[in-house]
Every structure is written in C-alpha cells, then in structure tokens.
Write a structure and sequence with these properties.
The complex is a heterodimer of chains A (about 260) and B (about 260). Chain A has about 260 residues and is mainly alpha-helical. Chain A is about 80% helix and about 0% strand. With about 260 residues, chain B is mainly alpha-helical. Chain B folds into two domains: about 1-40; about 45-260, MetI-like fold, CATH 1.10.3720.10. Chain B has helices spanning about 5-35, 45-60, 60-95, 95-110, 115-125, 130-150, 155-165, 170-205, 210-220, 225-250. Classes of the chains: A mainly alpha (about 260), B mainly alpha (about 260). The interface between A and B is large, with 61 and 68 residues.
C-alpha cells in the first residue's frame, strides 16, 4: 500500500514541479501576472467558482449537453452499426452518408443548427449527438463485421434466434471496438459542447470562459479552463475503468493498460 | 457459396443503391425547398447552394478564406509534427523525460483544447499566431504518443546490428529509428489532420479574424443560408480530400513495413 502511494507520488511529482515553477515565475514577477496568473490565484478563483453557482450553472450544463448527446449517439450509433454490418441493403443506403460526413469538421454544422434550433441545450445536444454518432457507427460496424462467421453459424445450427445471436455473439464481439469508438466520441463530445457554447450560448462553461476573458478576470478564466481539463480527465478515466471492467473476459484485457504513454 | 460473378453483381447492386440513396436525399431536399415546405432561410434549395458556391468561388472570397484556414491548420500541424516527433523520440530514449512528461501528457491528452482558445488569444492576439499555436497544441498529443510507442518498440536487433556495423548515433536515428517509426507517425497524422482542421475552423468561428469559420459565422448572422451551406459543403469536401490524401501517403511506402 505505502509502496503504491510512493509510486503515485513519484509519477505525479512532475505536475507539482510544473505548478511550482509556474508559481515561482509569478511570485518573482518574471512574467506579468495579468497574462499568466499565479497558480495560487487560479486555485483561489477555482475555489470561489466551486463554492458559488458558477460551476453548477455552467460546467454542469456543459456536462449534461455533452453526456446527453453522447448517450443518444451511443444507442443509435450501435444500432446503425449493427444494421450496416448485418444488411447489405441498409449498408448501401447509409454508408455514403456516413462516409461523406465522417471527415466533416463537425463544428461546421453549429451555425446551421443555431439557424434551425436557436441557441440553447437542444442545439448543443444535437451537435454533440451528430458528432459522436459517426465514430460509434464506424467502430460498431467494424466490430460486428469482424465476428467470425463460424460463431454465428454454430449458434444458428444450435437453434439460436436472431435476437439471441445479436446479444450473445455480435454485441460482445464488437464490444472492444465499441469502447474504442466511445472513447473517441467522448473527446468529441466535450470539444463540440464547449465550441457550441463559445460560438453562441447563454450558459455553459465555454461561454463562461469567454466571458471572464472579455471582462479581464484572467484568474477566473484560467480556473474555468482548469475545471474543464479536470472534468475531461476524470470522464476519460471513468470510461477507461468502465471498459476495463466490461472487457475483463476479453483476451485483449491481458495486455490492457490504462496509461496513456506507457 | 457465392461465386465471383455473384459477388460482382452484389457490388454493382450496392453501388446502385448507394447512388440511389444520395440521389433521393438530394431530390427530396430540392423538392422540399422548391415546394416551400420549409422556409428558404432554414433550407435553401440545392441549386441555390450550388449557385452561392459558384459565386463565392468566382469572386475569390471562398478560395481566400480556404487558403487562410488551410495555412493556419497546416502551419500548426507542421509545428505539432516537428515538436511531437522530437518529444516522442526523447521520451523513448530517456527515462527522465518520460517520467517528467508522462503525467503532463496524461492530463493534457483528454482535455478539450478548444477551451484554451481565450488563453491563446490573450497571449498571442487574435490573428494567425493564436490559431496556429492552438492547432499545434490540439494535434501534438496523438503524434507524441504514436512516435513514443513506435520508437520504444523498435526491434533492438536492428539497432544492435547497425551499431556493430559501425553506425554513429545520429545515423541510427535517421536510418533506423525514424524509418521504423514512420508508419505509426503517418497513422497519427491521419488522426491529427482532422483535429487540425476542426480546431482551425472552430477557432475562426469563435474568434473571427478571417478564414472559413469566420465567414461561415458571418453568413449565419446575416441569415445568408445558401452561403452557410456552401461553406459547410466546402469544409466537408476539404475533410474528405485530406483524409483520402493521408490514405494515399500511407499506402505509398508500405514496402518495409512487414520488416519491422
């Protein structure tokens, strides 16, 4: 136990070192604190943000938009992916749309969505939904397509009906790929939710960051950015933990590795 | 069992169906717009969009905007490529660098970089520099991680053999390690190119200062819907073209890939 704590301390000490140097440059006035507020000042601002309504009214709104869009995209993306993998007719109809929109820089549709739905949560959720849909469709499709036909044939020969094959063979087999898609989509969901708020919104952390920037309260601006970084980090870690848990039975799990660079 | 002829027939049928699906959507769109089922403001007809596209290409606004955006995206990408490969190699070669950068990258990698835009504007102004640096910041991490994991897994035998044949350290870097990392770096660039494009476009939409994104927002604010659609179509085509280009680059040099 103590060993793992020292290990963690050694691993995380660079973050402390960077914060220390940053604080030092501010305390010794090497850089203008108007441009780079000291970490202590940012920490104080973050404390005030957390104790007031700002985080509740803005970061939580952003998280809600990102996660609602992601959840809807997961459900329909998996459904589309399975449909495309299982039926060549459906695949032929849908795949040109998927192929064409896959590499569209997704925030481009935000102005269009503003035109159609106004500014607010509906627009944000739809923008996130459309963005997250594509990686999930593509990954699900690949995962289902890669299912060995032998598995499906054996199940069929033993009398399993289509529904059972879907739940017991195709979906479990595609699960690692679906999680890959989900991790990409999670990153997208934050980027698009925040971008949409920066472009036009009355609420949300993206708007809050800009508002602080415009009013010159830079320590609060940095604190709001820090809150986004922290939220995105823990969301990513939560998803990784979920995927490691759900894939415990899978052979890829043996080499599974939560570290980013390791 | 399906024979070769059957397979070809299936391919033809699925192409036909794909074409049909796109045609139906375009015709339904044009029809709905012409019949005024939806106001022009929300959905201009396909023909109106094409006319807007032609006019904007003809009077030079779209090519100039595209040039500005692509300059920002690719200047940032170039910077990210140089820094990312250097940092990735440094992490693979030195335990100290790895120890120092690993947690920082771990925190920065999942962060939505666009949230840093106001900070970059504060530091580097609203013109090219802040956007180029934000693009570089957004796209550097996949390149670092790919280079690092490729460099750490270079076959030791290759390095030992060239050492025993008398290669110098820089030579090993240029002739062995970098070529061995090349396929993974190209794969990382395929991830980084769309990130660079989306970051450049979004930064322009938020902060203005010319380029595709800025004009798109401007058109939306003045309810010039055909222009909005024309710009979105252009961005879509640009995204597709660069993705295909990355695939071509990847497949151009596969010869020694099995080697590693």
């Amino acid at each position: 136990m103590t060993r793992s704590i020292t290990d963690a301390a050694i691993r995380l000490s660079p973050i402390a070192i960077v914060l220390g140097i940053w604080q030092l440059t501010a305390s010794l006035h090497w850089v203008d604190t108007a441009f780079l507020p000291a970490p202590a000042a940012v920490g104080r601002a973050l404390g005030q943000l957390l104790s007031g309504n700002e985080i509740r009214d803005n970061l939580l709104v952003t998280l809600f938009r990102a996660l609602a869009g992601l959840a809807l995209a997961t459900v329909s993306g998996v459904w589309f992916g399975i449909g495309m993998a299982r039926s060549w007719v459906f695949n032929a109809i849908v795949s040109p749309l998927v192929g064409a929109t896959y590499s569209l820089p997704k925030t481009a549709i935000v102005p269009l969505l503003i035109l159609w739905f106004g500014i607010g949560s509906t627009m944000g959720i739809i923008a996130v939904y459309l963005t997250c849909l594509l990686p999930i469709i593509v990954q699900t499709y690949h995962g289902v397509r890669a299912t060995p036909a032998v598995l499906v044939w054996s199940a069929q020969s033993m009398g399993a009906e289509e529904r059972k094959i879907l739940w017991q063979i195709l979906l479990p087999h595609a699960l690692p790929d679906i999680f890959t898609g989900l991790r990409v989509a999670l990153g997208f969901s934050f980027v698009v939710a925040i971008s949409a708020e920066m472009i036009a919104s009355t609420k949300g952390i993206g708007r809050l960051i800009f508002m602080y920037g415009e009013s010159g309260s830079y320590d609060f601006m940095f604190a709001a950015v820090a809150s986004v970084v922290i939220a995105a980090f823990f969301a990513d870690r939560a998803l990784l933990a979920l995927s490691t848990r759900s894939l415990r039975w899978h052979e890829s799990h043996a080499g599974a590795n939560p570290g980013v660079a390791a | 069992m399906t024979g070769k002829g059957d397979e070809q027939a299936n391919l033809v049928r699925s192409y036909a169906l794909s074409t049909l699906s796109v045609a139906v959507i375009l015709i339904a769109w044009e029809g709905a717009a012409r019949a005024k089922l939806v106001p022009d403001l929300f959905l201009p007809s396909v023909s109106a969009v094409l006319i807007a596209l032609r006019d904007e290409i003809a009077d030079g606004t779209l090519p100039i905007d595209l040039g500005v955006s692509l300059y920002r995206a690719f200047a940032g990408l170039l910077l990210a490529g140089v820094v990312g490969v250097a940092v990735g190699i440094a992490m693979a070669r030195s335990a100290l660098t790895r120890w120092f950068l690993d947690p920082l990258i771990g925190v920065a990698f999942p962060a939505p970089k666009i949230a840093f835009l106001p900070i970059f504007i504060l530091w580097f102004g609203i013109d090219h520099m802040s956007k180029i640096l934000l693009v570089a910041f957004s796209s550097v991490f996949p390149i670092v991680i790919a280079t690092y994991s490729a460099a750490i897994s270079v076959n030791r035998l290759l390095i030992w053999s060239s050492l025993s044949l008398g290669s110098s350290r820089p030579m090993i870097m240029w002739k062995v390690i970098l070529p061995a990392c090349y396929p993974r770096i190209v794969a990382a660039f395929r991830v980084a190119v769309p990130v660079a494009l989306i970051t450049a476009f979004t930064a322009e939409m938020v902060a203005g200062g010319g380029g595709m994104g800025a004009t798109l927002m401007y058109a939306q604010r003045f309810f010039e819907s055909p222009t909005v659609f024309a710009y979105i179509v252009t961005m879509l085509v640009v995204g597709l073209v660069f993705d295909k280009a990355m695939l071509v680059i990847r497949d151009r040099f596969p010869s020694w890939r099995e080697f590693n």
